[in-house]
Design goal:
This protein is mainly alpha-helical. The chain is 77% helix and 1% strand. Strands 1-2 form a two-stranded antiparallel sheet. The N and C termini lie far apart (173 Å). Component of the exocyst complex involved in the docking of exocytic vesicles with fusion sites on the plasma membrane.
């Protein structure tokens, strides 16, 4: 070190003498490495900067070395004596130190030997104290941890036992009370980390249970609804029976006709007995059919977890989906009543469950939610029923549907749901029910008409007479006085029609039951539906019957008589409806039956058909006419077709006059029909004969043909004068041929001067002869005369006659032209 220090000082001095600056740090800081690095730099600068620098450097270096040696020697001389004294004292102390060392070693050995046993005992004591302290600490910590472990063990047991609500409560206690005490332990942290997972597991399990519950109630909705509807039906039927018993007790009766109470009792009581036989066991409730614990449990669990809103939304969403499925009917639901029953029971079951949830839980289902759901369902139900009921063509099925709707409405009304719209729908279905009834009874009426023989009902004895009278309200004192056998004026169809009208009223009345309507409204319904039956269905059947080709004139007359008796029976039908509803006919708003006009219209149609058929028969005979319009002389007798026609008319009118006339009304009616038919036939025959003469295709007529035609008209006049139908006054019937008679007389007598002179006079002999008609016939005769008398111009008489014809033709044409100008 000294050497290094010296070298450093020498180097520094040399560099300073040479005019070089060198920043040297203490050698001790960087050591020799730094010194030599600096030295290299200094030496390099010495050799590189000045010429002969090496020599100068060596000289200076030697001088520095000598100076430093002198300084070192001085310094050593100055401290040498103190160093010697210190060494002397140190030698003296070494002897005493060795002695002290020996003593201390001996003392230490003795202490060591003496303290070995104490050390062993002390270590035992220390170890015991440490163990005691540790035990105390462990006991304290265990006392603190044991409740936590016990609660956690309890939590596991609750989870295993599926007591999830209790498990959640246990979790709350662990988190709020027990975990804060032992939060520093690792097992506590593990437990804390495991609790959220357990909560999620509980949520998933409870949600799974809820899904199973929802699936279960979806499957059991029909059973729930069926039970609820049966209970509602039993309650309603019990009320009806109780009301009937009270009416009997207080002497009240609603129905006078014997059949009605019997039938109504059959309608009302039969289901009650069936239900009593089937349901003698205890009445089941919705709680007996469905286990609601999954809902309660899940609701409590989500409430504890603070996620009640999520649960409510999920429940309502799923139930709305189920509602849509329940409200979706099967495509063939309208085919059977079972399809409708299954549809209704599922809906009732759904809303019974919702009503139960509403009353046993708070907030899960609200009244506003159920009302909204019911309104949605009600609109869908009405649309479905309106669509499917339109396919029903069987009135019995429509009636069963109505009964189901009433029970359905009464059941849900008992649970607080508004059902007024359903009863409004029933009024629409009632119209459809009436339509199906009308179609059914149209078939019944057609069958009755097909089976009728259209002849008066023969009565052999009193028993038969009473049987008919019990079915149809017929009264005729003159007929009652007659002895058996005798005949009733109407045919078998009349009592059958009357019975079927009453049956229709019964059927219509069945639909009006349980609609919560007053007797006045029911009376109005019955009368309107009966009016439809009479004015539309029965009237249509009668008109179709009258138009059928196989219905002859005799049958048409019998139909007229039948309609007369049915018309008279309308007042008994009104009394019948009055007995049912207890609404007097004198009530201001009571609807009257339109049977009178219905049967009058049918009777007029039958009369018109008689006239039409008779005229058609006349046309058939007239078409058989085969006149030789060019004959020169007549045959001397009437045409065969006309004699056959007259014989036919005589037989027909003889049948009319021999119809039963057991009463003045029947006699007047048959006489009127016969007279009108006879007059119509004669007029039609006269018109047909006139048209035959004036036919545009007939170009020429000889006087011989006119004379032959005159013979036929004479036979017609003889028929009219023979009074084929009694009751005509004077020659009224002969007037039907007056046009033909005057026209033929004019040509037969050739009395043109009188005709032309008296034309237009009220007392004219040929007042009924139209100039146009006379002109047409005269031109046909003129053409014939020209053709048959080629050489007429060579005979004076024939020339004069031809000139006369030409003159008459000119005058007739002037009359026709005058008439047209006047017109």
């Amino acid at each position: 070190m000294k050497r290094l220090l010296g070298m450093e000082m020498i180097e520094k001095g040399l560099l300073e003498e040479m005019g070089l600056e060198l920043n040297l740090k203490p050698w001790a800081t960087d050591g020799g490495a730094h010194f030599w690095e600096v030295s290299k730099t200094a030496f390099r600068s010495v050799y590189d900067d000045q010429p002969n620098a090496h020599k100068k450097f060596m000289e200076k270096l030697d001088a520095c070395i000598r100076n430093h040696d002198k300084e070192i020697e001085k310094m050593c001389n100055f401290h040498h004596q103190g160093f010697v004294d210190a060494i002397t004292e140190l030698l003296k102390v070494r002897t005493d130190a060795e002695k002290l060392k020996v003593q201390v070693t001996d003392t230490n050995r003795r202490f060591q030997d003496a303290g070995k046993e104490v050390i062993v005992q002390t270590e035992d004591i220390i170890r015991c104290r440490i163990q005691q302290r540790n035990i105390t600490t462990v006991v304290e910590k265990l006392q603190l941890c044991l409740p936590v472990l016990e609660m956690y063990s309890k939590l596991k047991e609750q989870m295993s036992a599926k007591r999830y609500y209790s498990a959640l409560k246990t979790m709350e206690q662990l988190e709020n009370v027990y975990f804060p005490r032992v939060s520093q332990y690792r097992f506590c942290q593990l437990m804390i980390e495991n609790l959220p997972k357990l909560r999620e597991d509980i949520k998933e399990i409870s949600m799974s249970d809820l899904k199973d519950f929802l699936e279960s109630i979806r499957k059991h909705s029909d059973k729930i609804g069926e039970t609820a509807m049966k209970q509602a039906q039993q309650q309603k039927l019990f009320s009806v029976i109780l009301q009937k018993q009270n009416n009997v007790k207080f002497g009240k009766t609603v129905y006078i006709n014997d059949r009605i109470p019997e039938e109504r009792n059959e309608i009302v009581l039969k289901p009650v007995f069936e239900e009593e036989d089937e349901n003698e066991e205890e009445v089941l409730t919705v709680q007996d059919l469905v286990d609601f614990s999954p809902v309660y449990r899940c609701l409590h669990i989500y409430s504890v977890l603070g996620d009640e809103e999520t649960f409510e939304n999920y429940y309502r969403k799923q139930r709305k989906k189920q509602a849509r499925l329940v409200l979706q009917p099967q495509s063939n639901m309208h085919e059977t009543v079972d399809g409708y029953r299954r549809y209704f029971t599922q809906i009732v079951g759904f809303f019974v469950v919702e009503d139960h949830i509403l009353h046993v839980t708070q907030g899960l289902v609200t009244r506003a939610y159920t009302d909204e759901l019911w309104n949605m369902a009600l609109s869908k139900i009405i649309a479905v029923l309106r669509a499917h009921s339109s396919y029903c063509t069987d009135p019995d099925l429509v009636l069963e549907l109505k009964n189901l709707i009433v029970i359905f409405a009464d059941t849900l009304q008992g649970y607080g749901f508004p059902v007024n719209r359903l009863f409004d729908l029933l009024f629409e279905i009632r119209d459809q029910y009436n339509e199906t009834l009308l179609k059914k009874w149209a078939g019944v009426f057609r069958d009755i008409f097909e089976e009728d023989n259209y002849s008066p009902i023969p009565i052999v004895n009193e028993e038969e007479y009473k049987t008919v009278i019990s079915k149809f309200p017929f009264q005729d004192p003159d007929l009652e006085k007659q002895s058996f056998p005798k005949k009733l004026p109407m045919s078998q169809s009349v009592p059958h029609i009357y019975i079927q009208v009453k049956e229709f009223i019964y059927a219509s009345l069945k639909f009006s039951e349980s609609l919560h309507r007053s007797s006045t409204e029911i009376d109005d319904m019955l009368r309107k539906s009966t009016n439809l039956l009479l004015t539309r269905t029965l009237s249509s059947c009668l008109l179709n019957l009258i138009k059928k080709p196989h219905i002859g004139l005799t049958e048409l007359v019998q139909i007229i008589i039948n309609t007369t008796h049915l018309e008279q029976a309308c007042k008994y039908l009104e009394d019948f409806i009055t007995n049912i509803t207890n609404i007097s006919q004198e009530t201001v708003h009571t609807t009257r039956l339109y049977g009178l006009s219905t049967f009058k219209d049918a009777r007029h149609a039958a009369e018109g058909e008689i006239y039409t058929k008779l005229n058609q028969k006349i046309d058939e005979f007239v078409q058989l006419a085969d006149y030789d319009w060019t004959m020169s002389e007549p045959d001397g007798r009437a045409s065969g077709y006309l004699m056959d026609l007259i014989n036919f008319l005589r037989s027909i009118f003889q049948v009319f006059t021999h119809l039963p006339t057991n009463s003045n009304d029947h006699a007047a009616m048959s006489g009127k029909v016969a007279q009108t038919a006879c007059m119509s036939a004669c007029q039609h025959l006269s018109t047909s004969l006139m048209q035959m003469l004036l036919d545009s295709e007939l170009k020429q007529i000889s006087m011989g043909a006119v004379q032959q035609f005159n013979l036929d008209v004479i036979q017609c006049e003889l028929f009219a004068s023979s009074e084929p139908v009694p009751g005509f006054q004077g020659d009224t019937l002969q007037l039907a041929f007056i046009d033909l008679r005057q026209l033929l007389d004019l040509f037969m007598v050739w009395d043109w001067s009188t005709y032309l002179a008296d034309y237009g006079q009220p007392a004219s002999k040929y007042l009924r002869v139209n100039p146009n008609t006379a002109l047409t016939l005269l031109e046909k005769i003129k053409d014939t005369s020209k053709k048959n008398n080629i050489f007429a111009q060579f005979r004076k008489n024939d020339r004069d006659k031809q000139k006369l014809i030409e003159t008459v033709v000119k005058q007739l044409r002037s009359l026709v032209n005058g008439m047209s100008q006047h017109t």
